[in-house]
Amino acid sequence: MNEPPRGFPRKRGRRSESTPAATEPGPQTTGAASRSLRRRYPRAVSEPGTLNRGPEKVRSSRLLVLAVLAIPAIAGLACTPSTTARFEPELRAECERFEAAVDRGDAHAVASFFLPDADRVNASGDWAHGRAEIERQYVALFARRRADPSTRPFRPEVAIRFVDTDLAIVDGRWHGTRGGKAVAGHYTIVAVRRDGEWKFALGRGWDLPGTAS
Predict the structure, then answer these.
(1) Of 111, 171, 180, 205, which has the maximum CB count within 10 A?
(2) Going residue by residue through the chain (213 aa), what tens digit of pLDDT does each one get?
């Protein structure tokens, strides 16, 4: 058999069908999503030494990247106008029932709108942890109101903003009288939907500047 001249590469025979193909470095992209990901994030997908650490790690890393990229889209779908149209009426109705309990001076009923582990900071800065402490806050508030004949029920203007389908921020601005003087303030409530009903996870209240405590 004639040998090729020294320095010439040897001619290789055709690989048989049973011989496995050599594994190419980097993940094999398939489909429009993978091609789009590869164009947008070429280093994360194909740079040697990053994701090219074996098939299992490549697949796991690719899934992680795709999941992170999908988060903004999922968040955008959570708070569509249909979400507001579906859940705002029932949350607003719950807020009205809450205000009715406040007007009645029923501290126990008011506290029942909060979660058992909720917390609340009132206009004086007192921080209540749990439903029992929140009830005691309202007991003291209603006692002060009963001792003040000039007190009138507060009528808040309520705005609701949905953060997610089961999470919303309720902002209220109220006006009333205290000690014979006009007073006003704000409150913010974080409402969560649990087992088909809305509950308050936390509450914050404060008087507007110049309002007596």
Answers:
(1) 111
(2) 555 555 555 555 555 444 444 444 444 444 555 555 455 555 444 444 444 445 554 454 555 445 544 444 444 445 677 777 889 999 999 999 999 999 899 999 999 999 999 999 999 999 999 999 999 999 999 999 899 888 877 778 999 999 998 999 999 998 888 888 888 899 999 999 999 999 999 999 998 876 554
Domain borders along the chain are 31-78, 81-207
Class of 81-207 per CATH?
Answer: alpha beta
Which residue do the tokens 């979660």 mark?
A: 115
Q: Give the span between the Cα atoms of 157 and 176, in whole angstroms.
A: 12
User: DSSP assignment of the chain, as one string?
Assistant: -PPPPTTSPPPPPPPPTTSPPPPPSSPPP-HHHHHHHHHH-HHHHH-TTTT-S-HHHHHHHHHHHHHHHHHHHHHHHHT-HHHHHHHHHHHHHHHHHHHHHHHHT-HHHHHTTEEEEEEEE-TT--EEEHHHHHHHHHHHHHHHHHT-TT------EEEEEEEETTEEEEEEEEEEEETTEEEEEEEEEEEEEETTEEEEEEEEEEEPTT---
